[in-house]
Amino acid sequence: MDGDTFFTIGALARRTGLTVKAIRFYSDTGIVPPADRSPAGYRLYDIGALARLDLVRTLRDLGLDLAVIRQVLEREVSVPEVAAAHADALEVQIRTLRLRRAVLRAVAKRGSTPEEMDLMHKLAKLSDDERRRLITGFIDDTFGGLDANAEFVAMMRSAMPELPDDPEPEQVDAWVELAELTQDPDFRAAVRRMAEYQAAQRAQGDRTGLHHELTETVRESVGRALDAGIAPGSAEAASVVDALTARYAQTFGRADDAGLRRWLLTRLEIGGDPRAERYWHLLAVINGWPAPPSLAPVFTWFAEALRTHTGQQSHVR
């Protein structure tokens, strides 16, 4: 077949698999113009039209619109440029579809009301930057203007929710719960009280920062007591409390007396809101981190034991 070969619309349709109606549309819009007309006035197309139609069909199958296809055919943009731009656009669409799927699965699992489903959809659609702004705003509002524990605030600011492109329903559910939690006025007030307490302690000279080793000591000591079935009000618990208050006294440079125990009780009560632990748990689910072990049973036991044995300090060291 050479360059003098012409095809009717019907012949093009048979060769390309496109309908006569589709080819006529492409011809009328100038995307595949006829090369000539027959004596009877019918449109005739050359071999170039066949190649253009093959390219048009491929580009249409890939989802490109006619305006972009025209630019490609007229050499206004290259195929690689169009492919790269379209791939980026598809990536956004795919991410959106995956997110919708996760929201729907989370809604089905939750048994959500229409109002809850609407909220979940709106929150899930937020961009990474919008999610960060929501959490950063929560931290700014609760810690802003206070000289709170700098290491703790830095830790909070470094732990932002990063919902993956293809989230599991549990991750969407966790993000919605975290967003709701950070907007809860009662939780915000509780975190603000914690920040104010930290600032007051720093004003009194406490510059000790975070206390991971001390927390681990409490977890191990109380964990053994819990495993042994020791009740917080029992005599056996007194020795556990004595050892731990001595460690706190050493860490904070305070006397190990009844005043320390009252101070420690206040500290545990202010920092012991279970919603604070829930905040970190939800972040772990969203970001795919290992779930942190719950310290609520440990510090609940410690606070109760401390409350029982304050004023009844053992003299055995």
UniProtKB/TrEMBL annotation:
Keywords: DNA-binding. It holds the Pfam family MerR_1. Residues 6-75 form the HTH merR-type domain. PROSITE patterns: HTH_MERR_2 (PS50937). CDD domains: HTH_MerR-like (cd00592). SUPFAM superfamilies: Putative DNA-binding domain. InterPro entries: DNA-bd_dom_put_sf, MerR-type_HTH_dom, MerR_fam. This is MerR family transcriptional regulator. It comes from Microbispora amethystogenes.
